[in-house]
Amino acid sequence: MFLPKYPDVPTPPPAHTHTPADPAPARRSLPSISIDQKTVAAVLVGGVVLTALLAAVAVTAISVAVAAVVLRSMLRDQHRR
Question: 20 pLDDT exceeds 80?
């Protein structure tokens, strides 16, 4: 009842007749990049400087936040008196 019905004679698969519309573009090699020690040193120094600036901004922001909390607390105490 639920058995599949197979064809008596197997038919061959159709031949592939698709041809690409555009040929593949020619691959180009990337230009060679020569990295010397000065470039590496400049990148490292730049990274260190940027990291130091980021740390300075973070420390400044934290200190300003702490100062604001302290001032707010002092002003609140003065208003209660």
Answer: no
Helix (H/G/I), strand (E/B), else coil: 56:
helix
* Dist. CA 61–CA 67, nearest whole Å: 10
Token digits of residue 16: 């592939």
Q: Is residue 24 part of a domain?
A: no
Task: Quote the number of domains for the chain.
Answer: 1
Position 6 in a domain:
no
Whole-number Å distance between alpha carbons of 80 and 74: 10
pTM tops 0.70, yes or no: no
Q: Does a structural domain hold residue 61?
A: yes
The tokens describing 64, both together, are: 């300003």
More confident residue, 27 or 74: 74
- Write out the residue range of the structural domain in which residue 57 sits: 53-81
Q: Is residue 73 part of a domain?
A: yes
* Three-state secondary structure call for residue 2: coil
Average pLDDT over residues 42-61: 97
